[in-house]
Design a protein that fits this description.
By secondary structure, the protein is of the alpha+beta class. The protein is built from four helices and 14 strands. The longest helix has 23 residues.
Length: about 270
C-alpha cells in the first residue's frame, strides 16, 4: 500500500498535473492540500474517470484539503474535533488496502488504516496573531490525536506541516534561525506529535543530504536547491514495522507552472 501527500497550491491550476502524476504513480491514497476551491467546484468526475474516489473539504480561494483513493473513504471527518476553526485544514478517513475486501457499509474495517490529511497553518511570523493561532491549532491537533490513537492505532498523519524538524531540513539554517517554520516553539509542537507515538517515515531510512519538499518560486529556489522539508508523513507505532520506504518525488517540481511543493510518498508492506 502506498500513501502520498502533496500541497498542489491550487487544484484548479494543477488538476492535469495531479492526474498525470497519479497515472505514473498509482498510489492507494493521496492527500492534497491548498485546493483553493469550494466543495461544489471539486472535480470528482475527473478523478473518477482516472479510477479514483475522492472526498474533500474545500474553501473558496484559500486552504482546502482532500483525500483521493482507490478504495472508499470510510468514516470521513472534517477538521479537528474539539477545536473551533472556520478554515478547511484537516480531513480524515479510514481506508482498506486493495487486498482487503472493502465493506459495503460505513463501518470501519479492522484492517483499515486511518489517514489524517492536514494543511498546517503557516504562522506568518513569530509573535503575530497568526503565529499564536498556529500554536493553538497544533495543540488542538495533538490533544485530538492523543485520543484518536487509542481507538485507531493504525494511523498516518500526513500533509504540509509548515514546520521543519531541525537544521537538516533547511537549506540555510543560519539565515532561517528563529524564522517561521524553524522556531523553537513550532519544533516543540512537532516533536510533541512525535511523542504521541508517531514516527517521521522519511527518516526511518538513509536519505540524501539536502532533501527538501518545498522551494520558493523566487530566486531560482528549486534550481539552486534552496528549499525546506516541511511536508511530512508520520506513522504510528503500530504501522512503523510495515514501512518499507519513504521518498520525496521532485519530478513534478520541474513541470511548467508547478506547485512549490513536491509529493512525499510512503510505502507500507
Amino acid at each position: 500500500m502506498k500513501l502520498a501527500t502533496w500541497n498542489i497550491n491550487s487544484l484548479t491550476v494543477r488538476l492535469p498535473q495531479v492526474l498525470d502524476w497519479l497515472g505514473a504513480n498509482p498510489v492507494d491514497v493521496l492527500a492534497l492540500q491548498e485546493l483553493k476551491l469550494s466543495d461544489d467546484k471539486f472535480p470528482h468526475d475527473a478523478f473518477a474517470a482516472a479510477g479514483y474516489q475522492s472526498v474533500c473539504f474545500g474553501q473558496k480561494t484559500y486552504n482546502g484539503v482532500a483525500l483521493i483513493s482507490k478504495t472508499p473513504a470510510l468514516d470521513v471527518m472534517r477538521n479537528i474535533p474539539g477545536f473551533s476553526d472556520e478554515l478547511a485544514r484537516v480531513i480524515s478517513a479510514t481506508f482498506a488496502s486493495e487486498a482487503d475486501a472493502a465493506p459495503a457499509s460505513a463501518d470501519i474495517p479492522s484492517t483499515g488504516i486511518r489517514v489524517v490529511g492536514a494543511y498546517f497553518p503557516n504562522g506568518q511570523e513569530p509573535g503575530s496573531d497568526k503565529f499564536e493561532y498556529k500554536l493553538a491549532w497544533l495543540k488542538g491537533l495533538r490533544d485530538w490525536l492523543r485520543a484518536e490513537l487509542l481507538t485507531r492505532p493504525r494511523l498516518v498523519l500526513m500533509g504540509d506541516f509548515n514546520i521543519t524538524f531541525d537544521d537538516a531540513d533547511v537549506w540555510d539554517p543560519v539565515g532561517m534561525k528563529d524564522q517561521i517554520h524553524c522556531t523553537d516553539e513550532e519544533r516543540y509542537e512537532l516533536n510533541a506529535l512525535i511523542a504521541l507515538g508517531l514516527h517521521d517515515a522519511h527518516r526511518l531510512f538513509p536519505q540524501a543530504a539536502k532533501s527538501y519538499s518545498w522551494w520558493d518560486y523566487r530566486d531560482f529556489g528549486f534550481r539552486r536547491n534552496h528549499g525546506m522539508r516541511i511536508d511530512h508523513i508520520l506513522v504510528s507505532n503500530a504501522l512503523k514495522p510495515q514501512v518499507a520506504a519513504c521518498w520525496i518525488d521532485k519530478t513534478p517540481r520541474k513541470n511548467e507552472r508547478p506547485s512549490d511543493h513536491a509529493p512525499v510518498v510512503v510505502e507500507l508492506r
